[in-house]
Amino acid sequence: PSEQAARMKKLQEQEKRQKMEQEVSQFIQATGEPRRRFQPMNKIERSILHDVAEVAGLTSFSFGDDEDSRYVMVFKKEFAPSDEELDAYRRGEEWDPARAEERRRLRELVAQQEEAELERGPAPPGPPNDYKDKYRHLIGSDAAKAAARTMEANKAYGCVPVANKRDTRSIEEAMNEIRAKKRLRQAEDE
Fold first, then answer.
1. pLDDT by position in tens, the chain (length 190)
2. SS3 content of the chain, % helix, strand, coil (to 5)
3. In whole angstroms, what separates CA 27 from the centre of its chain?
4. What are the domain boundaries of the chain?
């Protein structure tokens, strides 16, 4: 019984192969057809179709997500698909050359804009947005202005009068004194 089943399976595969070869030869003879989409089929049938297409000198690809809906598309060599076309089929979309041309133009435009931006140089340093906008709900829009009007500048800020300084030595004098103390300590340790 298993021999008979194996023989039947082999016969069925041969029949499928012959049927696919006929369909592929019809496709090759069809002059106005650059590509043909076959019905969804199982893995073995897809494998057979890929072999038939390769022998016939055609390019073939499988598309579809799950095993039940995967199908094979066969292309004539002179109409081999571009990467964009293959990506469209992989996404499950229909290939539209006009839309693809529009996308290509958009990509070129974006590339030109990026190039122009690079030529302009880096953006001036600074935060990407204004913190006041972020915290407007907390501080309001004129709280900072009111605070700035009432604030008085401290004229002595950052300036300490000589009379208030405890250490009147220069930096060089202070450093020399520190070095002398270190030498003294080292001499004591020895």
1. 688 888 998 888 888 888 888 888 888 888 788 888 888 888 888 888 899 888 888 888 888 877 778 888 888 888 888 778 888 887 777 777 777 788 888 889 999 988 888 888 776 676 667 767 777 777 776 766 666 666 666 666 667 777 777 777 888 999 999 999 999 999 999 8
2. 60, 5, 35
3. 38
4. 3-81
Q: Give the pair of three-digit tokens for residue 7.
A: 């023989």
Sheet containing 59-63: which strands, arranged edge to edge? Answer: 35-37, 71-75, 59-63
Query: What is the second-level CATH architecture of the domain 3-81?
Result: 2-Layer Sandwich (3.30)
**Token representation of residue 130:** 């204004």
pTM of the model: 0.49
Residue 132: CB partners within 8 Å, gap ≥ 6? 139, 141, 144
